[in-house]
Amino acid sequence: MSDFLIIGGGVIGMMTALQLADAGQRVRILERGACGREASWAGGGIVSPLYPWRYPTSISELSRWSEGAYPTLALRLLEETGIDPEYRQKGLLYLSVEDDDAALAWARRLGKPLERVSSAFVREKEPRAGVDGEQGALWMPTLGSVRNPRLGQALRARLAAMPGVTLSEHQDVKGFVERDGQVIGVKTSQGEYQAERIVLCAGAWTATLLATLGIPLPIRPVKGQMIAYQAPKGLIERVVLKSGRYVIPRGDGLLLVGSTLEEAGFDKATDEHARASLEQSAEEIVPALASYPVAHHWAGLRPGSPGGVPFIGALPNQQRLYINAGHYRNGLVLAPASTHLLVDTLLDRPPLIDPAPFAPGAERPAV
């Protein structure tokens, strides 16, 4: 029996396992496919909610802590695995923000660097950004991004080398093992596993699994399609955001553009309508992209939740079953803090922040 059994090998599940293993615990991860290949792979890797001032304060508290954790985590994983998660801290330019007064008020409350800048400032920072006339922008100099597929690879490699961790991939969880009304393990395609504590980090599939216990949870899949261009290195250097869409540069010239929001169940198919819409957004943000072909087009499933507030903590009336899911568009953003908060609970440590807003059963904002 493992001390901890984690269902789901995305970034949330793997960071949970890493922190537990660092604390001397034995951990097994059960993953239906390969670790780090679902929403953790499909996202963009911006280490901030797109418009953080539009989220509840609880999300700001998690994201602020996570933002500070990523530089150290990226360096650690590079040293331990040789795989570079490519954390880049070059700031973010917000173009065409309608509620900039609310944004600046939020930044003042949190002591967050955010300022109005002129179109000349934008052109100096990003000469190829599509600035409308003399319209200014908002500038957040501390924002970073991470290359999430490589973050997943690095986390998996580190966990595979840790003696207290077992990675059980390609094992689909079919249901739970119960005794006297309490969950004590899971049933998989390759047998049963039991553990002292079970942590459900299954992303968009979380509610489906809990339904087998008769536990309703408002987490649903929300499809997001993205495209990428292989552009010359340095075409743009910073994340640029406009009208809810963004362009994210990688160090080798790859430029990610995202993303759609689609209520399509568990369908991950891509389509030409979404591609054309993303191309249009890309060319509005960086007009020079009209000269380059789209190199990649893909889709992933986010775990949508009310208000985008994740469920973190013990499930009601269960002594061994815990959850960390429902991060919606901010799984990568919130992963270091949300996993730290759950591990605090699991190991009876003082919590990182107040866990009450994230508790399963807590009242959440309307969608």
Describe the SSE topology.
Layout: E1 2-7, H1 11-22, E2 27-31, H2 39-42, H3 57-81, E3 92-95, H4 100-110, E4 115-117, H5 119-125, E5 137-140, H6 148-160, E6 165-169, E7 173-179, E8 182-188, E9 191-200, H7 206-211, E10 220-230, E11 239-242, E12 245-249, E13 254-258, H8 272-285, E14 294-304, E15 311-314, E16 321-325, H9 331-346
Describe this structure in words.
The structure is a single chain. The chain is α/β, with parallel strands linked by helices and 367 residues long. It is 29% helix and 26% strand. The protein has helices at residues 11-22, 39-42, 57-81, 100-110, 119-125, 148-160, 206-211, 272-285, 331-346; strands spanning 2-7, 27-31, 92-95, 115-117, 137-140, 165-169, 173-179, 182-188, 191-200, 220-230, 239-242, 245-249, 254-258, 294-304, 311-314, 321-325. Strands 1, 2, 6, 7, 8, 9, 15 and 16 form an eight-stranded mixed beta sheet that branches. α1 runs parallel beside α6 (148-160) and α3 crosses α6 (148-160). The longest helix has 25 residues, at 57-81. The radius of gyration is 20 Å and the shape is globular.
User: What distance lies between the first and last C-alpha atoms, to the nearest angstrom?
Assistant: 40 Å
Low-confidence stretches: none
Percent strand = 25-35%
Figure out the total of helices: 9
Helix proportion range: 25-40%
Quote the average pLDDT. Answer: 94
- The dominant shape is globular
Number of strands: 16
Question: What Rg is obtained from the alpha carbons, in whole angstroms?
Answer: 20 Å
Largest sheet, strands/sense/barrel: 8 strands, mixed
- Element order, helices and strands? EHEHHEHEHEHEEEEHEEEEHEEEH
Structure classification = alpha/beta
Chain oligomer state: single chain
